[in-house]
Design brief:
single chain, mainly beta, seven-stranded mixed β-sheet, four-stranded antiparallel β-sheet
């Protein structure tokens, strides 16, 4: 079975930084896209950053200039470097992956979620 394993969440003061990691575990054929979503208390899950392999990277306006998504292709891992964190960034962060298990088997996966709490 394929799963996404997240790590790196925690507590940080406003202005600080955190780095989230998400690794694809299991056998896959290829990756179409990987990214990050977040859900704050009482709010809907929203896109934070998305990288479509071989294409562009998209960021939510609220994180542009502060967050950076990157990949380690050899290890099927995606990172989210978060800097200049604000209290508004407090949320559960979910890794997202659009994968091909085989040439004819596309499937979307979600990580378990990792809590990021930014204090003032």
């Amino acid at each position: 079975q394929v799963q996404l394993v997240e790590s790196g969440g925690g507590l940080v003061q406003a202005g600080g930084s955190l780095r989230l990691s998400c690794a694809v575990e299991g056998s896959i054929f290829s990756i179409n896209a990987m990214g990050w979503f977040r859900q704050a208390p009482g709010k809907q899950r929203v896109l934070v950053a998305l990288n479509t392999i071989g294409s562009s990277t998209n960021y939510a306006d609220s994180v542009k200039g502060r967050f950076t998504i990157s990949r380690d292709n050899a290890n099927n891992t995606v990172f989210l470097q978060m800097s200049s964190l604000k209290t508004e960034d407090t949320a559960v962060y979910y890794c997202y992956a659009d994968l091909l298990r085989s040439r004819a088997n596309r499937q979307v996966y979600w990580g378990q979620g990792t809590q990021v709490t930014v204090s003032s």
